[in-house]
Amino acid sequence: MNCPKEDNLSQYVDNLLTEQEHFQIDQHLKTCDSCTSIVHLFKEEDQFLKDSLQSPTLSDDFASIVLDQLEPYKEKEIRRNSHTVKRILILAAGILLALSLTAAVNPTFAQFIGGLFSTKQVDEGLQMASEDGLGNRLDLEVTDQNLTFKVEDIIVDSSRVALSLQVINENGIAERPNISNNGNTISVTGYNGNYNYSMGYRIDSGLDYNSFQVFISDEPGLEKVTIHFHLVELNGKQGNWELEIPVVVADKEKGTEKVHLNNATQNIDGVEVYLKEIQYAPTSNTLLYETAYQTSELVEVEEKLKYLKEEFGYDVSELLNFGTSIKYYIENEEKKVILKFSPFTDKEPMDDKLIMSSAKGRGKLGHAAWKESFVPEKVESKLTFVLDGVYKVVPTNFSVKFNPAKIEDNPVSFEYMGNAVTIKKAKLQNAVSADDSAFFEIEMEVSQESNAAVLGNWVLKGDTERAYRIDNETTENGSENLKRTIYFKTNGLAEVPDEMSLHLLTATSFYELEDKWRIPLYE
Questions:
Q1: Rounded to 5°, angle at Cα 452 from 295 and 320
Q2: Which of 116, 255, 434, 494 fits a 20 to 30 Å CA distance from 397?
Q3: Confidence tier at 347 by pLDDT (50, 70, 90)
């Protein structure tokens, strides 16, 4: 199911949809973290409006008295003691909202309380950093076609660079930036004193802002990050908006504590886990660790991959470059779990405390370096890492035969590694346009047990020796969390034979630890 438009999500919150439309969005929210976040923002905004409108009646001159005493938003020294001022600002915003509910309410909401990083439109790590005075106002902007693209605030620490982005329209009203992929380019470059290198970024949508985040890489000696916006389409208008923001990060380690975990090691069912380090930064805590196949397991996996290459003509070793991973949680001194992590978000909901997760190959099959950042505790506490178990990707030799012409009348069902699978359709589809080619589509319905393996990559074979690799796959979740429909597409098949076979190349199994592995994340 495609994501609903924001207008529909707003109507969903306000109970303005039909029963069927409401139900459809209900189902979508069970599997879409992005839309769930937007719905939460709409609900928070509604609650703010309700609270503001229910404020007691005040004297006619109360608003002017309060506003006359407010100081302008300025440097971070003022923001270090901002709790009392912030309460006044929120109250003032409530008064203005009660006096005049206009279209400008929503876009200017964050501005009243100190910018994006002072609101729940960002994670708690950025909120806490803002409260501690770690944010700085940039107010960099460029205007074209009566639209002003603005970079308002910045927060920098050893884990990330965060910017707040906004668009001001011709009426002076703030809007959330809508930055399409139509010709727009955004680049982030890191400089380490010797050379420049590209870095990744993430844009999160809020109600009246976007947050732009660059997660600091492990490249040694990083001195500067340069963020370059070259936009030719903004909020539906064609134009030219170009900004370059150089960010000095040479002293990014300031305020960060590092605890070395001395390669604490655990071996579980052919998987090795090495805990490297945890970094406590102002906006996030970051855990660094590595996973790999044990030597004997690696030899067995490589032998199976060699067989698959000979059988199907494909080198599928790249499918296992990140063939090992872990499931864990982190708890504080009171044994309260503050973060749960699983690499498979379709089996385990993504923890809202998780800010970022990434992995890099370490050159050997199945050996990966992992990095997870999560929201820091508001109250300082000694944390403990607890390993639940490991995930391992292995090559398989499972296959199933079917007759495409008869499949809709006689679906083919099978069970494998905790998965109950039914092939419901297998049909050659016509090209959508003259530039496209015909494709063969297979529809499979999968129901999983709670501990089922995750079925990985497949190839398709007809009545010849040629194997068709399936690279195009889409999934629709059903009404139950562990039930979904998978659509496979493959090109190059001109005629459909009477008998075909699907071959599963890889599967991922979970191996749980009965006696949990616990490692203190403090010295």
A1: 35
A2: 494
A3: low
